[in-house]
């Protein structure tokens, strides 16, 4: 099957000054589809080449026109004032939204091709008419997606899970008790409740775009880091806290930060308000407050390098099976062939 894939992001490391969580899993998904015999043509700009200077055209194909495809798959884009809502050619303009309109108009509405719409950020309005269009399958990266939507989680490569070594990761020296990697977007309340109190008691580092930090003078903010440095920082850290916007927490939508941390051996403290928290991490890592997060980190520092530390990392790794690439491909294969039969797609 020839899949036209629309995404505004990178397959490689990209550039530092950009938000694109898809770098941790986009190429995993694409390579998995290719391995299953599908053909992929990318329909947005080749940002790897244009912005990052990385030429991947020997391995992947991009097309700015309207090539012949069998299925359209979209990583959903939404209006961002001053960026993709401005006129083409204006300073700071990105053409992702205009291009998405063009693709939907041609393939989904005019040709009535099967369309898989992956609403990775939960920005598709509940009343959007696309949700009721027979040739459109809406997916969300949530355990408990919206009515009528399918669950398509961010994938982790099977070989990464199968080759992970909890004992080796627990044996590493971790000089940072606490770290957070990610941007500020809609996370202030969770940061206040869980991370900031623990950071007052433990050495820490926050990496990501945080522009409003005056209320946390005791927090050490490092700014954005290059994507390859994410794994290095998690490897240096004993624990992180999984901070989610409310719209994610309510439906059990976990970001890539979970498996980035776990595969580096960094234990993810998990707010117990996240729906389905036990599906993501063992109860021993769940927290209800910043004070409890502080105590948990104290306990983790005491067991670092011990058999209990190994067991906790291994328990987290076992729960990552929910995100296994082969599971997501099974769901996606069915959506690609029968997008309207979402009620038959089993939950992960």
Overview of the molecule:
The chain is of the alpha/beta class and 348 residues long. It folds into two domains: 2-155 and 324-344, Rossmann fold (3-Layer(aba) Sandwich), CATH 3.40.50; 158-323, Glycogen Phosphorylase B (Rossmann fold, 3-Layer(aba) Sandwich), CATH 3.40.50. The protein has helices at residues 26-35, 47-50, 96-110, 158-162, 166-170, 188-199, 228-236, 246-249, 257-263, 277-280, 290-303, 307-319, 325-337; strands at residues 2-6, 39-42, 61-62, 71-75, 115-118, 136-140, 150-151, 176-181, 204-207, 221-223, 237-241, 267-271, 286-287. Strands 3-2-1-4-5-6-7 form a seven-stranded parallel sheet, with helices on both faces. Strands 10-9-8-11-12-13 form a six-stranded parallel sheet, with helices on both faces. The longest helix has 15 residues, at 96-110. The protein is globular. Mean pLDDT is 94; it is low at 342-348.
